[in-house]
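Please predict the structure of the following assembly.
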Amino acid sequence: MSTTAVKENEPVLAAPKPEDLAAVLIAKNRPQRPSALSTSVTFGWRAMLKIKHVPEQLFDVTAFPIMMTLMFTYLFGGALSGSPTEYLQFLLPGIMASSILMITMYTGISVNTDIEKGVFDRFRTLPIWRPSAMVGYLLGDMLRYLIASVVILGVGLIMGFRPGGGVGGVAAAILLLLAFSFAFSWIWTMFGLLLRSEKSVMGVSMMVLFPLTFLSNIYVDPKTMPGWLQAFVDVNPVTHVVAAVRSMMSGDWDGGEITWVLIAGGVILAIFGTLTMRLYNRK
Amino acid sequence: MSELAIEASGLVKVFGENRAVDGIDLKVPAGTVYGVLGPNGAGKTTAVKMLATLLRPNGGEARIFGKDVVREADAVRSMVSLTGQYASVDEDLTGTENLVLIGRLTGHRKPAARARAEELLAAFGLTEAAGRQVKNYSGGMRRRIDIAASILNTPDVLFLDEPTTGLDPRSRNQVWDIVRAIVRHGTTVLLTTQYLDEADQLASRIAVIDRGKVIAEGTKGQLKASVGAGAVHVRLREADQRSEAEALLVRTLQAQVVLESDPVALTARLSGESTEQGAAEHASHALGELARAGIIVDTFSLGQPSLDEVFLALTDRTATPEESAA
């Protein structure tokens, strides 16, 4: 392998032959303009290829969620619920939601580093539906979120998580979480385009995500909190996402919370999707 | 005049305080190579980006085959391709993957996109590198895959932004051959470059731009005549013969002679009227005269006008009227 690589690096490439070039240049019929769905899926395929070529980037959707789950279960389990296994039944849906929402910020970072590269100039000179490059990104990220969800679920099951909602409830809960994360990620695509360096994207993401995930119903029951904090927790979208996911996993579907999450997702998508595309077109 | 592929008038782009492009007019006839020549920071890339719909002009307007680059951007995008100064391909993907990606995005179905990718890789001599990530390509190979991606959908207008900057001479020649083949096919090419000989080799008309303005425009012949035929560089064995050599060169070449900081070197700038052949004749005559006068010459060379010299000549000329007016 390495020997062929060395050999290939020697620049002994044949010069392009004019007649071959002429042949590829003979006017082919230009195909019809591709649909928005088709170009989005193509950009999603690009994201998958990047994962295939650099599989190390899956570290944040495998090791990080495992660490979160183990850490908080054993740290708080005994104190809050008497035993880690007991606590896990309460914590797992929440830790899953918080881990996925945490890793959505990598979307902003990769948009920020990728957009500066010349290839985006090419994408932006193609006659295609403008948001498809961004949508494709997020489609690739959905795979990452799915991997993280499955990893957390796997670790949870090994540690003794027994969801009452069964396979259907858990699958539906993960789907809802992915749908919300898709919408939520547009916040980071916006910051990815808005801010100048990946460090600042990281900084802003942390500043938003830490309060959102910790000041919620993920780790403890909000009833134990002071009133002013409860007020914040109640309006925090993460609280509603976790409540919905928890209800679905336990088999006791809370229609109100699920609707809330879907509407909130739609609103976030409408606002930040629009802002992202504005910045993208102006960049 | 034949149909215009690119037509820009009064194009302006301002970044903060900097007027990167400060009122550029261009008229590029269809089916030709048009060279935009200028140093780094002259505004070449900014101008190209506006023409390729990547940047919105702050003033003026531009049309590609009659379509406005702002109001009809989508129609323009279906006609143009851009090969940027920095690789406009995805370095993490392989050569094949890049071309299939662009093929899919331009509306080819998967099998057609694959077939087109293979065909292009073969034509560009990249079949062996097809499965490697572009980041492992050499500079010349990157350029080729980049141009291959640009012509995948046979554009009407191709923008090449400094296509050979940083390439070795052989790769540079190959890129030139590719550009010639593309134009022969009927695509209009707008090429930016820092090298006069590149514009000379490829372009039929050239615009020289500096600080966001077109400072000269014309056919190669016109431009060269205005700049001068080149320079004769002479190095003597003995420094004390230099003033004698200077006088002799001024007399035989009727040229402006510059004494270099090196005490044995001097350069004569040939005037613009002489053709290239005339320049060589003049130079060999001068060499003979130097020998006859007993001046020992170590090295002697005839240089094409460099971009620096073009600039010097052009900016001097634009500066003169102001001075005489003052």
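Residues 71 and 171 of chain A are 24 Å apart (CA to CA). Chain A touches chain B through 45 residues (CB under 8 Å).
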